[in-house]
Amino acid sequence: MRMIVGLGNPGIQYRNTRHNVGFDVVDALASAWKIPFRATRFTGLVGEGVMLGHKVLVVKPQTYMNKSGECVEQVMDYYRVEPHELIVVLDDIDLPVGRIRVRSFGGAGTHNGLRSIVDYLGAGSFARVRVGIGPIPPDTDLAHFVLSRFREEEKETVQSAVVRAEQAVEALISDGIEAAQARFNAPPE
Q1: In angstroms, rounded to a whole number, what is the distance separating the alpha carbons of residues 9 and 65?
Q2: Is 73 a member of any domain?
């Protein structure tokens, strides 16, 4: 089983913000593969389905970003998902808007949602699909920037990035980490 977690903040006020691009990608995957989300006893929305012949869970933590690990740990424990079966989709201020980076492990950097997951799991050895939302302008508050909406001139690039991130998750599932990295870590043409 694969578990695909999109990181974001719950609530209408955070919809379409830079920090919620992980939710956007997981929403797109769930829609494409007809996997409905349902409220659960976990602190998140969970959908169960099949993607490319593999049983998958799609998850959107509803704990706010800095406590995402709580939901991830609950769902992993219940479904007996191992860290190597986990794929986390998140925003990345260190990547320019539109860039995708697939990683198989690593630290959390400045991302509080990812840090929460690493802290709860005790390790960072899980796949992640990072979607560029940066760079942060000089003299701009980080929290304000990640909770802002994309500028009009960025929206088409972001939409393309969401599609590419969707494809990157699918490639991770069907072809493995190395193939996904080779295909998606280069700048889009």
Answers
A1: 6
A2: yes
CATH at residue 68: 3.40.50.1470
Neighbours of 142 (CB within 10 A): 10
Tens-place pLDDT, residues 57-86: 999 999 999 999 999 999 999 999 999 999
- The C-alpha atoms of residue 150 and residue 18 are separated, in whole angstroms, by 6
- The count of domains in the chain is 1
84 belongs to the catalytic site: no
Supply 32's token pair.
């494409």
Burial 84-94 (b: 16+ CB within 10 A, else e): ebbbbbbbbbe
- Report DSSP state, residue 187: P
93 is a domain residue: yes
Global pTM reads: 0.96
Chain centre to alpha carbon of residue 74 = 17
**For residue 41, what are the domain limits?**
2-184
Q: For residue 137, is it within any domain? A: yes
